[in-house]
Design brief:
This protein has two helices and twelve strands, in the order H-E-E-E-E-E-E-H-E-E-E-E-E-E. With 185 residues, the protein is α+β, with helices and mostly antiparallel strands.
């Protein structure tokens, strides 16, 4: 073997030995545990329908499929919902959307009645575990639990709606109550 090759092998062996020894170079170090193991639990937010609601014309309970609405009438549907919420920093919005109003068929009277009738919704909150926050329409959980929300959906038939809607029929689709977490304080 020539001298150059022997020198290269010797140099490579020296580098390998030095690298192996580099890991054993002593330096001071220490570690300690930060706190102890803790359990973190997520909160929750849900809404469920209470008992079936009630349709009314004024103070009289009605059955919508047999009630004959006339111009000037307002029909209301009232139902309770349960909002179950827990979370130390939980903020959420609560919305009630009225059901969709659609002509029951393509007849001129049904289409005219659907064009004349309007829907709206409102709600009230009864419970001490949520409170209105500083942002309108936003609620904050004060303690975990269930809050009862009463939703009222109104179908109004304006007085000056004309004769074309006589004998018309509409469907009033399901409304919705929605709770949505928000980051807005």
């Amino acid at each position: 073997m020539n001298k150059l090759t022997k020198g290269a092998i010797a140099a490579a062996a020296a580098v390998i030995l030095l690298m192996g020894g580099a890991g054993t170079l002593a330096s001071w170090n220490s570690s300690a545990n930060a706190g102890s193991a803790q359990t973190i639990t997520a909160g929750s937010l849900s809404v469920t329908a209470g008992a079936a609601g009630v349709w009314k014309s004024g103070t009289t309970t009605i059955t919508p499929s047999t009630f004959k609405i006339v111009p000037g009438d307002s029909l209301t549907y009232t139902q309770t919902f349960n909002v179950v919420a827990s979370g130390d920093n939980l903020l959420f919005t609560l919305t009630a959307t009225p059901g969709a109003i659609a002509a029951a068929s393509a007849s001129a009277a049904d289409v005219a009645l659907a064009a004349a009738v309007t829907g709206s919704s409102s709600f009230s909150v009864a419970g001490s575990n949520i409170a209105a926050s500083t942002t309108p329409g936003t609620y904050k959980v004060t303690t975990a639990g269930t809050t009862v929300v009463t939703v009222t959906m109104t179908v109004s038939f304006p007085y000056a709606s004309g004769n074309s809607s006589q004998l018309g029929a509409v469907t009033f689709g399901n409304g919705a109550v929605t709770v949505t977490q928000t980051l807005t304080p």
